[in-house]
Amino acid sequence: MTLIDLDQSATTAVRREVLEAMWPYLTGAYGNASSRHALGRHAADGLAAARETVARLAGVRPAQIVFTSGGTESDNLAVIGLTLGAIAAGRGRHIVVSAIEHEAVRASADYLARWHDIEVSVLPVNNSGLVDAGALEAVVRHDTALVSVQHANNEVGSLQPVQQLGELARAVGARFHVDAVQTAGWVSLDASVSPELSTADAITVSAHKLGGPKGVGALVLRTNAPLEPVIHGGGQERDRRSGTENVAGAIGFARALELAAAEHDPTTVARVSADRDAFIHAVTNSVPGAHLTGHPTLRLPAHASFVVPGIGGEPLLVALDDAGVLASSGSACAAGRDEPSPVLLAMGFDADTARTAIRFTWGVSTTQDELTRAAHLLANSAASLRA
Which residues are catalytically annotated? Predict the structure, then answer.
């Protein structure tokens, strides 16, 4: 049975070109980038080249790229590091996050509240999963240290008005962090190309969401905002993130980002978006009661999420898996928990309906035929579970 992978917001396959770029640094040039001998110098050169590539694609200087172990660490470094850095520079002990942020952001905010006496304001969202700028304007203050809002929600795909939200944060002198894990690759990280990112002080990116390896990501620092390290040790990454650098991972990350930037041109994005809309239409017309979650148009190009009242999300996932369709019931980082999605609860869904959530996400190589077949198998699976 040929599998149809529609769970690519959880992770993606490592591309052959990425593996080929990494291989020399896993074998011949495997040295520690901090070592002064030949192998170490080769590794350091590779790391520098990867940093330059990521910086070029993000429209910043190489010194503004902090390599990390992935999105979760980058979110922790941004939320905790920028907040503590701002406080050390004289800002107040107040931060703002949205109600539907990734768990890494929410948990970092909770940590600051518990251990550093930080006041946390939580922005509500509407039933499409969007933050209203007026809600931020109502809570942001002249002593606010940080505002953190994701570019796109991983569960429902809605794209946030991050440029406008960042302008409100900047107006009071607060730092603005954007988690762009889900949009990197689809949207350029370069603010001259993507003006919606022009107000961000820091941007989170992860390699394995765009054809790169797991275990590596970056925090892109677009300004010189003070940043306190979260991981302490040998002072790597300009004293901002200690630990032996994952040279091969960084090289794979840079190559994956480079490939995604070249392939996600406007024509391709338009095609994928059209396939998404056709898939949504097919599902809502063939699965009784299926309701799209997230904004109908302001959403990721390859993302469709639904609730199907009366059918549990987990049984539907099992039925689809048996039929050869890989999907998800929500965030992969919170999978396996018998709890309704906090994202859907924040959007106004009741707990029972939230437990019926199912998410489909794909990539540029996914065909229209695969999506048509997946919609058909979803309808069959839903009907059999209702029988």
Answer: 333
